[in-house]
Design a protein that fits this description.
Distance between the termini: 85 Å
Largest sheet: 20 strands, parallel
InterPro entries: Pectin_lyas_fold, Pectin_lyase_fold/virulence
Helix content: under 10%
Structural class: mainly beta
């Protein structure tokens, strides 16, 4: 199904039919609106199933008027518009060459956690070359988006020229007409996006419970491959490769913010680097991830990493939020002019990160951890080209350097087996022990007696303490 040639899009003079000057407004005059409408419209039709086929917005043969709306061409020009049709299913369909969006899906109104909502499925569909977003989702719940291929939204759409519109996202999830929740995105390939590959916007409602399983999210835009605006909740990434930045520019994400597990973060693909690469967000959990940062062949004058525990408690609140992470950094350190080098990790309790810095040349790269404590596995690196901006102690038996940071433990440390475990060893002694009331030891001749070794007015005493 394909639109005819020559259809008008944008601002046109209602009296003469000629191209009008740009009508730039949040509430533009509808008399000036020209649009293609929808190739397919589905409304109050939850049992519809579409299998295969192509919708083609004929982007190359449209007639463009002046801009209309708050940015670009905010007009109803969609290959498919789906509203109030939860339970709708579409399989192996191709959406391409839309002036605005390939698929626009919404469901107006609140969706309670206890509501029984039919499962909406978008399965193995292709979205490409759309002038605004390839896929806009502005309401609804219980939605599975399976194996989508999404590419070239916004200014990268083939044939769009200067007629693109914001946000230019591959997949745009917004709480515009409802509170989208319980959305599963499975094995997506969202690549070569004008701006974000995936964006969430919680205005005026809240986006909640979105899980991305596997796949690739790719955008080298300075806006990031992934972004959030507003108080979105429970956005989880599991085993996802993210090529480009991840940015939450606000402070509204609360106590159920981003989760990243077993993900890979990269700032370059081939010879192309993400512009102004930035990892700036709060997390509920950040475990088992790898960040690979190739220092660009240009000046890096701002932070690269600003990852924060969502609770913002000094030295962290929970000890399992930042574990088994790896940072690989390589390139010419002299290109980094930002005073804090790579940036900082903030407010993590017992954080764990290993940094492969063997590929760094020209100087030392650092990552600040002033507000974090270290996990048992440590904050470590494999060369002197990197520091956590604190004293780095070399391992006695291998070429690993550990940040000298406290390991914070609550409660009482107790051995698993009585009298069978040691603190330190012949080859690995602790330097200093700080105690207030002394050390209690057993009398080897009279095992029933225990003595507290203490200092009283400068005199060392051994006092029986059999409690």
């Amino acid at each position: 199904m394909k639109l005819n040639d020559g259809l008008k899009v944008g601002a046109y003079n209602p009296a003469t039919g000629n191209i009008a000057p740009d009508v730039v407004s949040e509430t533009p005059d509808a008399n000036y609106l020209a649009s293609t409408g929808y190739l397919i419209k589905i409304y109050l039709a939850p049992n519809v199933e579409i299998k295969n086929g192509v919708t083609d917005g004929n982007l190359a043969n449209l007639q463009w008027g002046g801009k209309y709306g708050n940015t670009g061409y905010q007009v109803p020009a969609y290959n498919m518009w789906v509203n109030q049709s939860e339970g709708f299913q579409i399989v192996r369909h191709t959406f391409k060459n839309s002036a605005v969006d390939g698929l626009y899906m919404q469901a107006v109104g609140e969706r309670s956690f206890l509501d029984v909502i039919p499962n909406t499925v978008v399965d193995t569909c292709v979205f490409q070359d759309c002038g605004r977003n390839c896929y806009s989702l502005t309401g609804g719940a219980n939605i599975d988006i399976i194996n989508p291929i999404i590419t070239r939204p916004g200014h990268l759409a083939t044939g769009i020229g200067t007629h693109f519109s914001g946000p230019e996202a591959g997949l745009d999830i917004e709480a515009e007409s409802g509170n989208p929740y319980n959305i599963r995105i499975i094995n997506p390939k969202i690549i070569n996006c004008g701006k974000n590959a995936l964006m969430t916007v919680s205005q005026p409602g809240v986006v909640n419970d979105v899980v991305i399983y596997g796949g690739i999210l790719h955008s080298l835009s300075e806006q990031g491959a992934v972004s959030n605006t507003g108080a979105s909740r429970n956005i989880k990434f599991k085993g996802v490769t993210i090529i480009g930045g991840v940015i939450d520019p606000g402070t509204l994400m609360g106590n159920e913010s981003y989760t990243f597990e077993e993900c890979e973060f990269l700032n370059r693909y081939g010879n192309d680097y993400a512009k102004s690469y930035l990892l700036n967000f709060k997390v509920k959990k950040f475990n088992g991830n790898t960040i690979t940062f190739g220092i660009p062949n240009e000046t890096v004058s701002t932070a690269t990493i600003n990852i924060n525990d969502q609770d913002g408690v000094l030295y962290g609140l929970y000890s399992e939020r930042f574990k088994e992470n790896r940072l690989i950094v390589y390139g010419d350190a002299t290109n980094i002019t930002f005073e804090n080098s790579l940036g900082a990790l903030n407010n993590f309790k017992n954080a764990e990160m290993f940094v492969d810095s063997s590929g760094v040349t020209g100087g030392i790269v650092k990552l600040l951890v002033e507000t974090c404590s270290s996990g048992i596995s440590g904050l470590s690196t494999n060369s002197t080209n990197f520091t956590f901006n604190t004293t780095m102690d070399k391992d006695s038996i291998k070429n690993i350097w550990y940040a000298r940071k406290p390991v914070r433990a609550a409660g009482v440390l107790t051995p698993q087996s009585d009298t069978n475990q040691d603190i330190g060893s012949v080859d690995g002694r602790f330097r200093t022990a700080y105690v207030d009331l002394g050390v209690i030891v057993k009398d080897v001749s009279v095992p029933s007696n225990h003595y507290r070794i203490r200092v009283n007015n400068g005199t060392i005493q051994a006092v029986i303490d059999n409690n």
